[in-house]
Amino acid sequence: MNFLDLIDNMPETVYQSLCEAVETGKWQDGRVVDSAQRENMLQAIMAWQAKHLNSDQLFTVGADGNVVEKSRSELKKSFAEDTIVRFKHDDI
Questions:
Q1: The organism sits in which domain of life (predicted)?
Q2: What is the mean pLDDT of the chain?
Q3: Is 62 helix (H, G, I), strand (E, B) or coil?
Q4: How confident is the model at residue 25 (pLDDT cuts 50, 70, 90)?
Q5: Helix 35-52 vs helix 12-24: angle between axes, to the nearest 10 degrees?
Q6: Which segments of the chain are extended strands (E)?
Q7: Structural contact between residues 41 and 3, judged by C-beta atoms closer than 8 angstroms
Q8: CB–CB of 51/45 below 8 Å?
Q9: Confidence class of residue 31 from pLDDT cuts 50, 70 and 90?
Q10: Mean pLDDT, rounded, for 38-53
Q11: Which terminal residue of the chain, N or C, has fewer Cβ atoms less than 10 Å from its own Cβ?
Q12: Complete DSSP assignment for 60-82
């Protein structure tokens, strides 16, 4: 199985476990994550996010591994769809 097949078949629970290990520096059983493991996990996390998550960020990594940059009009459109709560000065 190659890397991309592994990412395609990785369950979300494994992804979350990898994220937790990178954040804490420890596996769930308490063993310390070494630097090589951390590098491999970060690559797997970024690849999984690119394949499975739709991001509204300006720069993202696409499912094909290339950097995706949204245009100004795409960003404006994505912000226009979100509801923003607005207050008047006297309301606060």
A1: Bacteria
A2: 81
A3: coil
A4: very high
A5: 140
A6: 59-61, 67-69
A7: no
A8: no
A9: very high
A10: 87
A11: C
A12: EE-TTSSEEE--HHHHHHHHHHS
